[in-house]
Design goal:
Layout lengths: L2 H5 L24 E3 L7 H9 L5 E3 L8 H5 L9 H8 L3 E6 L10 E5 H13 L9 E6 L1 H4 L16 H9 L5 E6 L4 E5 L6 E8 L2 E6 L39 E5 L4 E4 L4 E6 L3 E8 L5 H18 L10 H13 L3 H21 L3 H4 L4 H8 L1 H20 L1 H4 L10 H15 L2
Parallel strand pairs: 1-2
Antiparallel strand pairs: 2-11, 3-4, 3-5, 5-6, 6-13, 7-12, 8-11, 8-13, 9-10, 9-12
């Protein structure tokens, strides 16, 4: 993106409150359709969708140059099984059974990719029926397993991606996935990890999305406070089980065509169906626009753990540490790792602001290159949002009860460095 175009946007200096993150309604359930890349800038996306937390759909023109769109699809728009087997046949992939409920999700198993493709072909031949059930390949880290493959390029609108920036840095995980499934496969009602944003691009096939704006899920809980597995189930009409269901808005419904990208806002619960044999690429991501929502989510998760094991508080000396361990096992992160997450994001931006970008880094697909592409004003915006969340984390009583001596630099020193870098950049 042209830096001058980006810099002229004053959005990055507005002090958006956290209340602006929750869009509780859309006029008539309307979702904007973005037709042309050349007339839609990152600043447009930031102003109209990231900050107000609104969904939108990008046309197939945004993905037409992807290798997966060219090679993974047959001439008639179906999955190209032969090509996929040739490239990935020896991989082992996670597969969920859509016909079985296990707690509030579907049970998963690991299968050889070639066995899954064999099942899929037979499933189609048998009229979309199988004694094995409806199997859905989900959450496959294909890009991490096959980094040399020409699959896709992340659109600039989604390039401020703190989750993958951090997990790439620690080389532990990532939140880039491929989904493949037959007509009828589906994902139960949920919100994405850490209440992150997500984007989902259909390589082939069609999906139906049912979206509930952040906050609407409260009306969909049963009398025990549990969310439904299937938001279309007739049981939701039973007021003795779901006492507030009649207060909920109808879902925002999207039918996503081949090549299109759907942007799912932070904290929006959703349920998704494959209307045809479908392949999609999905990312979860967090950035300065929704990191405060992630921090609120972590506080809520810890509070829930503390309520569950409150009876053990007095006899257990390290009760607060145990709560952190349980939270990390459930969510994938605890407060100390959240601090390290903020530190990595902040230090990358401070480095670019203080030292610029060398030629070698700018030529590579690196976080610092992405920061430079979005511009220095965006780096300052990121740092200002990090300061707010880090200040709240540092003052949090549960955080202060942990052994923080292993954190380097200490929170106070990092905050001082962040504020100094912001002041210097704005001179």
């Amino acid at each position: 993106m042209d830096r001058a175009t980006f810099a002229c946007s004053t959005a990055f200096f507005r002090d958006y409150s956290s209340s602006s993150q929750g869009a509780f309604c859309l006029p008539g359930g309307h979702v904007d359709f973005i037709e042309k890349a050349e007339s839609f800038t990152y600043s447009d996306f930031f102003r109209d969708y990231l900050i107000p937390n609104h969904p939108c759909i990008f046309s197939a023109k945004f993905t037409e140059d992807w290798g997966s769109r060219r090679n993974w699809v047959t001439w008639d728009g179906k999955p190209n099984f032969d090509h996929l087997l040739q490239k990935f046949g020896e991989a082992v992939v996670p597969v969920a059974n859509c016909d079985v409920k296990e707690y509030n999700s579907n049970p998963k198993e690991q299968l050889p990719f070639k066995e899954y493709i064999k099942y899929w072909k037979e499933y189609i031949r048998n009229g979309y029926r199988s004694s094995r059930g409806c199997l859905y390949l989900k959450d496959w880290h294909l890009s991490r397993a096959f980094p040399a493959q020409d699959i896709y390029t992340t659109p600039v609108y989604f390039s401020s991606d703190w989750l993958n920036e951090y997990w790439d840095a620690v080389a532990v995980d990532d939140y880039r996935f491929v989904y493949m499934g037959p007509k009828g496969s589906w994902t139960p009602f949920h919100a994405d990890v850490f209440r992150s944003y997500s984007w989902s691009a259909n390589i082939c096939g069609r999906k139906k999305w049912l979206l509930y704006p952040a906050g609407q899920e409260e009306f969909l809980k049963d009398h025990h406070g549990n969310l439904p597995f299937d938001v279309t189930a007739p049981s939701l009409q039973d007021k003795s089980v779901y006492p507030r269901y009649d207060q909920s808005q109808p879902p925002v419904e999207i039918v996503q065509e081949a090549g299109e990208i759907v942007f799912i806002p932070s904290g929006w619960h959703h349920q998704v169906y494959n209307l045809e044999d479908t392949i999609s690429i999905n990312h979860n991501w967090v950035n300065g626009c929704n990191v405060a929502i992630m921090w609120c989510f972590l506080q809520d998760e810890l509070a829930a753990v503390q309520r569950e094991i409150n009876e053990w508080k007095d006899p257990v000396d390290d009760w607060h540490l145990q709560c952190q361990l349980i939270m990390k096992s459930c969510t994938g992160i605890d407060y100390k790792e959240f601090y390290n997450f903020l530190k990595v994001i902040a230090e990358n931006r401070i480095s670019v602001l203080e030292n610029g970008l060398d030629d070698e880094a700018s030529a590579k697909n690196t976080p610092k290159a992405a920061i430079s592409t979005l511009g220095m004003l965006h780096a300052v915006f990121d740092l200002k949002r990090t300061v707010k969340v880090l200040t709240s984390l540092s003052a949090n009583e549960d955080f202060k009860k942990l052994d923080l001596t292993s954190l380097s630099p200490p929170p106070e020193a990092l905050l001082h460095h962040l504020k100094a870098a912001i002041d210097t950049a704005l001179l």
